[in-house]
Design goal:
- By secondary structure, the protein is mostly helical.
- The protein has one domain (5-52).
- Helices cover 57% and strands 0% of the residues.
- It has helices at 22-29, 31-52.
- The longest helix is centred in the C-terminal third of the chain and has 22 residues, at 31-52.
- It is elongated, with a radius of gyration of 18 Å.
- It starts with 21 loop residues before the first helix and ends with a helix.
């Protein structure tokens, strides 16, 4: 198996669907990281709304 093939799924329906790495899986399931992302996105939205009014 080639080094780049380890990132792709063996499922017949999704030949080119990439498998997430360990870091990505951790960030998707970490509640602390999700809370930080939530706060950052809310701040960005507040900035956009404040500029439009």
């Amino acid at each position: 198996m080639g080094s780049e093939q380890k990132y792709f799924s063996d499922n017949n329906d999704f030949h080119m669907a990439m498998k997430p790495g360990k870091c990505v899986l951790f960030l998707r399931t970490c509640k602390i990281w999700q809370f930080i992302r939530f706060i950052v996105l809310n701040i960005k939205m507040l900035i956009v709304v404040r500029k439009s009014h």
